[in-house]
Design goal:
By secondary structure, the chain is α+β, with helices and mostly antiparallel strands. It folds into 2 domains: 183 residues, Sulfite Oxidase, Chain A, domain 2, CATH 3.90.420; 81 residues, Immunoglobulin-like (Sandwich). Helices cover 16% and strands 27% of the residues. Strands 1, 2, 5, 6 and 7 form a 5-stranded antiparallel sheet that branches. Strands 9-10-14-13 form a 4-stranded antiparallel sheet, with no helix packed on it. A 3-stranded antiparallel sheet has the order 4-3-8. The termini are far apart.
């Protein structure tokens, strides 16, 4: 830990990042079809400035600079006995080595949040930080890390954070092995937004939110709002087009329009720079 914080294993950097629990707004999903997990509202999201060392720099310092047959995945695990399930009771996952080595992905081993050392709740003394990804792919209280030719077999790597086909419930997933199919893993945040006639929007992959819209007629027509991206200047100063933070939007709505019989609810949606639109 001291070697990382001293900069011995790589340059210390600070990066603003928004990330979420994959279950953010799950309560709304559960109104349509019951899922597995907590009944989250819209508050499982936050934005902070994280400080640490890029994982690619640390890997280079120990001689790993490219994927190979033996070096395909980077594994991360938290403390042994932390959780009730799995062989070791640890929370673990893995990412492709190519992802870990990509400097533009900004994968960090972080030891500070908003300029202060991590608190225990946020992973003291060291945690992983994967911009653009869900919180479930980041390991707090990082205890071990290694490189191998196979992805993680940790219990929570398989049984947390998957989106399975609509006909597959938990029982069928266990019976037919759906949990183990890599194509159903959730890594990156989906495009999403929330509102108060002002609101936020976020997306994954390092893309930026380019506009937010509202509808007063159940999605028949849409109106563009005023958008702010405070991260733009930071990204420009860093010399990158990657955006890891939420954007803010707001608009004015005349009260008379809300009284119109066609206005049953106010809807919002966001678009990102890859022209993905929130459903």
């Amino acid at each position: 830990m001291e070697q990382i914080a001293s900069g011995e294993w790589g340059t210390i950097v600070s990066i603003p990042v928004t990330f979420i629990c994959a279950g953010n707004r799950r309560k709304e999903q559960n109104l349509t079809k019951k899922t597995v997990g907590f009944d989250w509202g819209a508050g499982a999201v936050g934005n902070s400035v994280w400080t640490g060392v890029r994982l690619c720099d640390l890997l280079a310092a120990v001689g790993i600079t490219r994927p190979s047959k033996e070096h395909r995945f980077v594994h991360f695990e938290g403390p042994l006995g932390e959780l009730p399930q799995g062989k070791t009771g640890s929370y673990g996952t893995s990412i492709d080595l190519g992802w870990a080595l990509d400097r533009e992905r900004d994968v960090l081993l972080a030891f500070k949040q908003n300029g202060e050392l991590l608190t225990p709740d946020h992973g003291f003394p060291l945690r992983t930080l994967l911009p653009g990804c869900i919180g479930g792919r980041m390991i707090k209280w990082l205890s071990s890390m290694w490189v191998s030719d196979k992805p993680s077999e940790n219990h929570y790597h398989y049984f947390d954070n998957r989106v399975l086909p609509p006909h597959v419930d938990a029982d069928l997933a266990y019976a037919e092995g759906w949990w183990y199919k890599p194509e159903y893993i959730i890594n990156h945040m989906n495009i999403n937004s929330a509102m108060f006639v002002s609101g936020y929007g976020y997306t994954g992959g390092g893309h930026k939110i380019i506009r937010a819209e509202i509808s007063l007629d159940s999605g028949k027509s849409w109106e563009i709002t005023e958008l702010q991206r405070p991260e733009d200047e930071i990204a420009e100063a860093r010399g990158t087009d990657k955006h890891w933070c939420w954007a803010w939007w707001e608009t004015e709505v005349d009260m008379s329009r809300l009284l119109d019989s066609s206005c049953e609810e106010i809807c919002c949606r966001a678009w990102d720079s890859n022209q993905n639109c929130q459903p």
